[in-house]
Amino acid sequence: MLGxxxxxxxxxxxxxxxxxxxxxxxxxxxxxxxxGKTTLxxxxxxxxxxxxxxxIVDGTSVxxxxxxxxxxxxxxxxxxxxxxxxxxxxxxxxxxxxxPAWTPRFDRAAxxxxxxxxxxxSGLEVDPRALIRDIPxxxxxxxxxxxxxxxxxxxxxxxxxxxSLGPAGIKSLFEGLATLREQGHSAIxxxxxxxxxxAVADGVTVLRGGRLQGSFRQGNxxxxxxxxxxxxxxxxxxxxxxxxxxxxxxxxVRGLTxxxxxxxxxxxxxxxxxxxxxxIVGIAGVEGxxxxxxxxxxxxxxAPESGTILLDDADITAMPPRAxxxxxxxxxxxxxxxxxxxxxxxxxxxxxxxDISRGGLRRRGRLLDLDGMQARAAELLETYGVRPPNPKAxxxxxxxxxxxxxxxxxxxxxxxxxxxxxxxxxxxxVGAIDYVHRQILDMRDRGGxxxxxxxxxxxxxxxxxxxxxxxxxxxxxxxxTADADVDAIAMAMAGISPEDADAQPGAAMEVA
Length: 512
Description:
The chain has 512 residues and is α/β, with parallel strands linked by helices. The chain has two domains: 2-231, Rossmann fold; 251-344 and 417-503, Rossmann fold. It has helices at residues 37-44, 67-72, 90-95, 108-122, 137-150, 167-182, 194-200, 223-231, 291-299, 321-327, 336-340, 347-357, 370-383, 400-412, 430-445, 457-463, 486-493, 498-503; strands at residues 2-8, 11-17, 26-31, 52-57, 60-62, 75-78, 155-159, 186-190, 203-208, 211-217, 249-259, 266-276, 279-284, 306-311, 314-315, 329-332, 362-363, 367-368, 418-422, 449-453, 466-471, 474-480.
């Protein structure tokens, strides 16, 4: 890609960017939210046309009018949010859209054999007959990659491919990429995780503010240099933390059981949990082991089958979300756009949502105090570093990191007694991650209680005072962070106990 430029009105998303990918190369694309990564890859994948510049594939200049055009030239993309049909089998998902409309003559056995062969030759083994809804997240990702390989893709664009994976899933993904690289395939990883760059990348390209900041080869750079290229400065170390205050218990969960709304199975089963004032309890686990249902049940958007939830000794088990909010619960939801913000509302309106629901920001009865909303929003946007700090801007116009800051500003400015933070840094760049971490630590040091749900081991260890790992809806590992064993945490996330690993490598953990 040579001199790629793309403008959206007055905003230049990509400004004369050069990007080079070699055959049999894994290349990481780094940059803060809003740096132009997604725009650049959307141009390469044929989703949007460039305003200027040239794309050259195998020495020939090409123009893509659609993703199908790009795929015809061997370029495919695996999106962060998978595009699979849960009720279809692996084989049905892989061939879907690549054949004429299905008819009674559709040869299911032939399709399964074709998919099985592609999986075998690529080293991405998966059962073609398995239903998508029944397989874990890392295997679903393999299916997305198989969809592209089945269609002849030689270049794979992977958008935040490890966002939903645990250590075992990440290891499996990287091993799969190594196999594909040996077979002559190339891959582009859009990622914000600097450790992944050093683990898997042959080359790295860094963008900032829509401009190229540099291209590096493996062994010629380090994480500090890449962080400076991404942010324009150094990221300071997190402050030295005092010991947890050991205050009174704020959250007490007893015998909580929550069903998966899709499968009807128990996603959370007979769970006990406590979080005290002035501490952070971190919940780890590979996605799909009940963490999401636990957070949703605490937030009040999913009703438990049984058990009790106490907030400061008040039973909130049957309370609706609004009442829990008023009782002192703050929530940073896993999906900020679906659950945390109304994309088409202004920042002032989003920041006022919880106040309005409690009867605040009103004057003359039912009329809203619009001037008060704007003034309060301007203050919060400046305090929490949202860019642009414009109360009239719509939430949809902000980068992911700044959207997250708006959610944090609304929830933390209320100084809740308990904060449930679910995947608070998913999809964020290194600068935004640092900001979120500092805000969570600040709340803890002010005496608040924090329940942190995250798939990120580094984040878990850096922030948590106590750690618990969920597997199949139950806690299978608990420890004070200072005494925790990183290998044991990783194995527990994969469903392997240390005893099983020593005796029979690969044995499944028995959930007590």
